[in-house]
Write a structure and sequence with these properties.
24-stranded mixed sheet; about 475 residues; single chain; 2 helices; mainly beta
Length: about 475
Amino acid sequence: DVGNGSFAIHADAYQRLTDDLKIPKSAAQKLINDGLAQHTNNRRLLNSGAETNGGALGASLTFEKGYAGISFAQANNFYGTVAEPNVKIDMRNDRWDFASEIFDISDVISRAKVLLTHTEYQHQEIDGGVVGTIFSNRGNEGRIEASHTKLGDLSGSIGVQFSDTKYQAIGEEAFMPSTQTKKQGVYLYEEMPMGKVLLSGAARLDYSQISSAGGDRFGPSAHVSFAPTNIAIGGQYAMDSAWSIKLNLSHAERAPAATELFALGKHIATNQYLLGNSQLSNEISNNFEVRLNWKTAKHSASFSTYYNRFSNFITGFSTGNLVDESGQLGGSLSETIIKGVAAEFKGVEAQGKFRIYEGQGDLDLNLRGDYLQANDRETGKPLPRIAPMRIGAGFDYQLDRLHGNLDVLHAFKQDRLAPQETTTSAYTLVNATLSYQFKSAFHLEAFAKARNLLNEDIRDHSSYLKEIAPMGGRSLLLGIRGEF
């Protein structure tokens, strides 16, 4: 970064190379026992390595009542797909951004902000060294927002947002047709303090148009449109200087994505054969959340509970069939159908940070936990890929330039299963970090990060590939960084 207060330039670049992930011995043996030996060798998860590089360049101008800036960023990633040991992905993403904000515009408008983005994404699937299918996604997105001056105690903003995205896949393994998605939306947010109470409200109206070019097995071209509406109200009450309570009520609607509507074929990254549903309607839910907060100078804690009732929750459900690349029975792909169901989500979350020692350094205790239960309201059965209950504890220690952290997270066994799901075992993840800042003109810092110290076989229940791809085993990262 370099600048003189009025004009600034930023540049960055990076490169990262990683070998195939080393997994615990027990995880490798489980793959072998489950008939998935082709995914591991010498305790490595085959085809999980990656070569990543990229960078960004940006410049901005700051003037008396605002700023304007533009940037370009590129990311390149060449990586393997663990579901297919012989398939590599060669990905490139280019992104242009423009941002500007102006303050104190008039007696009515206090602030105006403009954000514009252009992206060009492409990746190639390379099977055995031969380029197969090429996927591309190009789009423009923008947001214009204005905040009004206070009307009494009322403050807020209004904005419009728009996007236009074109998706195309060329090759035998295209799992959906070429599509174009156009979205326009307008939103409003207002808040007003009333003594110890802070009231807030928001509303958003959207219009989405999604078009499919069709062709071949995808059938004729199609055009669908949606008009989701979102409304939320909330209130926060400060009981005293330490305690506050917050209540939120909302009605949320989401238009289906192009993938959910028109997918029909092999999705290589998740080892699925996807069956979209062009007859889907908006995903709709009514939501309730209450949060209790407590904060002092050196301690803080919060507890929240929520309930979301869906009349149409959209997700993928396994049929239990294993099919080949053409969708015929007898392959290794999990047939997955996209559909909407009546559902309910209810859960609790809690976290806290407490100063337990002061003297030769400061020691804080961190506690956290969460539990979610999600069911199909018609069948009473659990929804797929729902994370299990988790509890965690850790310590933060700070002594002058030395900082240390120990974190323990225990996830319970997930045996509340949707049809065709398998149980995920409990695990305990232990991570630790240690860093030291040297007295230097370059602000040098040495650090060490240890992950999965117990070398546990950890599976993410929300992952489509949990049977194939466990989390990495015990690892240690050593490094030094500096700023100038």
